[in-house]
Design brief:
2 domains; 11 helices; 50% helix; elongated
């Protein structure tokens, strides 16, 4: 604990609530999502195996993946704040990919794509190592726990249930439900929803730009989960003031620090 001073551990001990990011903080979202996307694109290719590009070359998974990344970047820029369901978002992405190659898709084929994505991502959901011990420690200490996440409300509800962590949480706060992104005020709305002051909360997340910076701007103390940076503290400057941010390389490490702070 040499890099984590008494002030830092005191903040962990005195917090009445912990706000936790979900995707790639509590579970391996990128891995599960990648598997689901691959399975979905392979099904598109299977359904249209004789489709040719304008060059006359056959369509391949490489072209589909490249186009999907373009669609994904455009489609998620608003951080899911417009209230659509996860299936609506996914259908739009799939349709966007197929439109780029002039592929027609029936309702039945689209439903099969959505079912494939859902089944595959569920099969590949995996908690980060140390997630359960961390959650159990927080509950044993009487902390309130809220998930603060960007994503469709229905999808995140299914994810929490499938991971078996639903009993540990008091609130699930999504950009989709409240209509505001993390960088545009979600943390302040979360504080209002929970009914807690910012100085009573610790936020844990894996994104500097979308977890740490906006949470600090809302007056919340933060822990950054970064696999390769244990033993350091980062500095975030907000409103002319510098704030130290604890960095941990695993949830196991964070759990041990919180236990010692108790």
């Amino acid at each position: 604990m040499e890099a984590h001073n008494n002030t830092t551990t005191e903040r962990l001990r005195n917090a009445t609530w912990y706000f936790l990011d979900l995707d790639d903080t509590l579970h391996e979202f990128r891995k599960a999502s990648s598997a689901a996307v691959d399975a979905t694109l392979r099904l598109i290719l299977e359904n249209h195996e004789h489709h040719e590009l304008s060059s006359g070359e056959p369509l391949t998974i490489v072209e589909l993946k490249a186009e999907y990344l373009k669609v994904l970047k455009t489609g998620t820029s608003a951080a899911f704040v417009d209230g659509k369901t996860s299936h609506e978002y996914r259908a739009e992405r799939c349709q966007g990919v197929m439109n780029a190659f002039g592929i027609e898709c029936t309702e039945q084929q689209m439903q099969a794509l959505l079912d494939t994505y859902e089944a595959t991502i569920t099969q590949n959901l995996q908690l980060k190592e140390g997630a359960i011990p961390l959650l159990e420690t927080l509950k044993q200490q009487g902390k309130g726990i809220a998930i603060i996440t960007e994503g469709p409300q229905d999808s995140q509800e299914r994810t929490v249930a499938a991971l078996g962590i639903e009993p540990y949480f008091d609130r699930l706060v999504t950009t989709n439900k409240l209509g505001v992104a993390k960088v545009d005020g979600l943390f302040r709305k979360a504080l209002e929803m929970v009914g807690v002051k910012s100085d009573e909360v610790v936020m844990v997340g894996d994104s500097w730009d979308r977890d740490v910076v906006p949470a600090v701007e809302a007056g919340i103390k933060c822990v950054l989960f970064a696999a390769k940076e244990e033993g350091v503290e980062r500095i975030v400057a907000v409103g002319g003031e510098e704030t130290k941010v604890m960095v941990v390389d695993s949830l196991i490490r964070l759990q041990s620090i919180i236990t010692l702070a108790d």
